[in-house]
Design brief:
Layout lengths: L4 E9 H6 L11 E3 L1 H9 L14 E9 L11 H9 L5 H9 L3 E6 L4 E6 L8 E8 L9 E9 L4 H7 L16 H34 L5 H42 L10 H15 L1 H65 L18 H38 L1
Parallel strand pairs: 3-7
Antiparallel strand pairs: 1-2, 1-3, 4-5, 5-6, 6-7
Helix pairs in contact: 2-3, 6-7, 6-8, 6-9, 7-8, 7-9, 9-10
Length: 409
Amino acid sequence: MSATITIRGFVTSATIIERSQWKIRGPINWERLSTEKATEFIKSTPARDRRTNMEKNRFRILLVEAAPSDRAELFKQSGILRAAKEAHWIGDEFLYFLEKGTTGSAVVETESHTSFVVQTPRDDLPYFSLAVTELNSCRNKSDADWGCILFADKGIDPENLICNIQFPSDFSTPLPPDFMFLPACLLQWQVQQTRDRVNYLSNDILAQDDKLTSGKAKSLEEMRKLLFQLEKQHLALYRRWSFEQDFAAKLLQCFQTIERRASKDEVATYSQRLSQQVRTQNDLSGTLKHDLDTIPGKLKFQHGMIDSQISIMIAKHSESAASAARKDSSFMRTIAIITLIFLPGTFVAAVFSMSMFNWEADGTIVVSKHIWMYFAITVPLTATVMILWVIWTIKSERYYNKRMNEKIL
């Protein structure tokens, strides 16, 4: 046996439970087993002894546990599974569920026995896989035993479940007490787990809402990652919810099958208490559907808020960039204007300084009397250039605004 695997066995009977006021008294006296002893536990049927209250309707449970991190070890117990199949504790259906990782439950009916198989999704939440089978190795069907094999994560604690829930006491002839009580307890545990986790998820989403609306979010990127984690949790919980809905429906179907098979000679009525317990858990599970259906909308709204805040941040950065660009443009425009102011004068001075003009030909005048021509040409030319620049700028602005308005409309 692997050090990460714990195997335990427990045997009781309907008579012992009845004499304990229809309760399985704890702490349970589990028998620690190795792999070899576990196969013997399955194959060897206890002697029917009235003195020990083990004459009929005996219930045998084999519990195989592993830590969630070592869950893969549960599926390597080929020796135990082989012995369980040979002893008719399990059938091909249970082996298929384990091998393929099938999620769900099934009622298996053969000519000699009825069996119930259930397996949770293999996700990050607590896992279990169970087979409960009627063992008809006795002459009288009302004395039939039941064999249960349960593969589970160590966090589930089956003992706490079966010891704290009242065993149904309303079985009547021709239906003897059976051990469908165990899957009913697991259903109740699963519904409670899903309800608690949905409440935790809803609270986390509300806390996320508060951070987004109050502006206390430290990092939008971190909040986006947290949203993806919340979406992953929601998908896992929705899958669990669908699983427990199927679980309850198939369990009620199994009760009807047991009742029908026992009604061949006389009318049989299955335990109303156990049936009502399952229906109650089914109804409680159904109340979670509204919460599970509204969560995606809340998460989508939060994604939208984060995207909006990111868009606002981008807009602010764009505005800063545009402001810097406008400043640069203003500087360039100033330089251009100064250049335009000095350019005509520079141009005229360059022309007048050409060798074709000889303003000091007589050698007596230092400043040429024709200097007025420079100003007469330069000033109008400069004014003309500036007026043309202003007209061009106004027309360009109008054309740009017209194009922008056309794009908006």
